[in-house]
């Protein structure tokens, strides 16, 4: 039975990915601050604050090596120039870049060939007014993952980004995004977490072995 490590597993897109993979026969280790209780023997919830990088490193040592890593944990921050807070930038970078870097750096040398890496990015990675701090980390994610993809291609390990538009999760209403309200995409509704999970699950399959180094939008036409 293949094993996936999913960050942000307790809510939103991460939870949707976890539930979908479990129904598809995966075992899942979920990393999140809050414990997720599921009546499924193939799921293990591990409480860890990804912002605490020392604790994260210690936690990884006690986990089995996965066949797939999915980094779905994320936070949103929005503010115009003139009001940017450096601490916010630090937190965004730690969660969106440094934490998955630590996870991949530890596990990839131990992973089997033909394993999978998927990170949840954002369709705003090319720029969005009042979201420069958030966008900067999602743009950096693209460069990082594309670099990994090139390094790992000889081993058949793929690395991709799934970049959703406005998705119906608690992140849409969290504190800190008052300066940039979510916009409903042209399809007339928000993206559903299950739709993002479906794309992620495909990228983990053997049939997706030729897809690597890609930033795949799922945005309801918002990026057109």
Task: Describe the protein.
The protein is an alpha/beta fold and 224 residues long. Helix content is 33%, strand content 16%. It has a seven-stranded parallel β-sheet with strand order 3-2-1-4-5-6-7, with helices on both faces. Strand 6, helix 5 and strand 7 form a beta-alpha-beta unit. Helix 1 crosses helix 5 and helix 3 packs parallel to helix 4. The longest helix has 22 residues.
What is the H/E string? EHEEHEHEHEHE
- Structural shape: globular
Spatial sequence of strands, sheet with the most strands: 3-2-1-4-5-6-7
The mean pLDDT is 93
Helical proportion, percent range = 25-40%
Q: pLDDT under 50 segments (min length 5)?
A: none
Can you summarize the main beta sheet? 7 strands, parallel
Distance separating the two termini: 39 Å
The structure class reads alpha/beta
Q: How large is the count of helical segments? A: 5
Tell me the number of strands: 7
Question: How large is the share of residues in beta strands?
Answer: 15-25%
Q: How much is the radius of gyration in Å?
A: 17 Å
Architecture blueprint of SSEs:
Elements: E1 3-7, H1 12-23, E2 27-32, E3 43-47, H2 53-61, E4 68-71, H3 86-107, E5 116-120, H4 132-152, E6 158-164, H5 193-203, E7 215-218
Parallel strand pairs: 1-2, 1-4, 2-3, 4-5, 5-6, 6-7
């Amino acid at each position: 039975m293949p094993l996936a490590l999913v960050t942000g597993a307790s809510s939103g897109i991460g939870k949707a990915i976890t539930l979908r993979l479990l129904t598809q026969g995966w075992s899942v280790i979920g990393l999140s601050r809050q414990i997720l209780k599921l009546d499924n023997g193939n799921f293990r919830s591990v409480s860890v604050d990804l912002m605490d990088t020392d604790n994260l490193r210690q936690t990884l040592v006690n986990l089995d090596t996965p066949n797939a890593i999915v980094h779905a944990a994320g936070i949103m921050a929005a503010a115009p120039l003139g009001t940017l807070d450096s601490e916010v930038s630090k937190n965004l970078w730690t969660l969106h870049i440094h934490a998955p870097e630590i996870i991949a750096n530890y596990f990839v040398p131990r992973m089997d060939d033909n394993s999978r890496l998927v990170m949840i990015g954002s369709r705003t990675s090319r720029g969005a007014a009042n979201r420069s701090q958030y966008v900067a980390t999602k743009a950096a994610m693209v460069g990082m993952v594309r670099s990994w993809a090139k390094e790992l291609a000889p081993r058949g390990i793929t690395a991709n980004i799934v970049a959703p538009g406005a998705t119906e999760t608690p992140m849409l209403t969290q504190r800190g995004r008052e300066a940039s309200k979510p916009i409903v995409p042209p399809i007339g509704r928000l993206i559903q977490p299950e739709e993002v999970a479906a794309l992620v699950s495909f990228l983990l399959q053997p049939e997706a072995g030729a897809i690597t180094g890609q930033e795949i939008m799922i945005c309801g036409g918002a990026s057109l």
